[in-house]
Design goal:
CATH architecture: Alpha-Beta Complex
Number of strands: 9
Order of helices and strands: EEEEEEEEHEH
Strand order of the largest sheet: 1-4-5-8-6
Strand content: 25-35%
Number of domains: 1
Distance between the termini: 21 Å
Oligomer: single chain
Largest sheet: 5 strands, mixed, barrel
CATH class: Alpha Beta
Structural class: alpha+beta
CATH topology: Inorganic Pyrophosphatase
Length: 191
């Protein structure tokens, strides 16, 4: 199906003028509902509901105009004071990444989770790297992604944790991959 119109998200740069990462929220903190952007319709739609007891620990979104190893835009967990809303643009600063492999139906792909702090966050002002976060919190974030994927019949295997420099290299690689793919529009997220 050919798209009828361009999305406003297609026009966003990966970084804003201040050098902050542009992140689009697709699932707010505390939500059991998982949303995804439907490129053909140009809006967000319900992509699934997490099992009872599962909810997103922080706002979750993606970096427009990038691609990850799974063929979707890069995933970002955004730390901030209050939940945002679906489709909200959050200028953010990268603080690290949970590098991971994800297996579904016998196929394994790279599927990292970038960690960022909202530029306007007050509670996380001093967080500049994953090392500034409580280790237990980072363990719990990893566990969330493991159990969330397990509930969907997927295996999520964290392989490393790294800081902001490595996270930025992953974003730069995502920009390159997007350009090499010849894609000019964001495809719908599968998650």
């Amino acid at each position: 199906m050919q798209r009828k119109s361009n999305s406003v998200f297609d026009k966003l740069s990966v970084f804003n003028e201040e050098g902050e990462l542009n992140v689009i929220v697709d699932t707010p903190k505390g939500s059991r509902n998982k949303y995804k952007f439907d490129e053909d319709l140009g809006l967000f739609r319900l992509g699934g509901v997490l099992p009872v007891g599962h909810f997103f620990p922080f706002d979750f979104g993606y970096v427009p105009n990038t691609l990850g190893g799974d063929g979707d835009p890069l995933d970002v967990l955004i730390l901030m004071d209050e939940p945002a809303f679906v489709g909200c643009l959050i200028p953010s600063r990268l603080v690290g990444v949970i590098e991971a492999k994800q297996t579904e139906d016998g196929k394994t792909e790279v599927n990292h989770r970038l960690i960022a702090v909202a530029a306007g966050a007050r509670a996380h002002t001093d967080v500049k790297s994953l090392n500034d976060l409580n280790k237990t919190l980072v363990d719990e974030i990893e566990h969330f992604f493991v159990s969330y994927n397990e509930a969907k019949g997927k295996k999520f295997e964290p392989t490393a944790r790294a800081g902001a420099q490595r996270a930025k290299k992953i974003v730069e690689a995502g920009i390159t991959l997007r350009k090499q793919s010849g894609k000019t529009k964001n495809k719908p997220r599968k998650k």
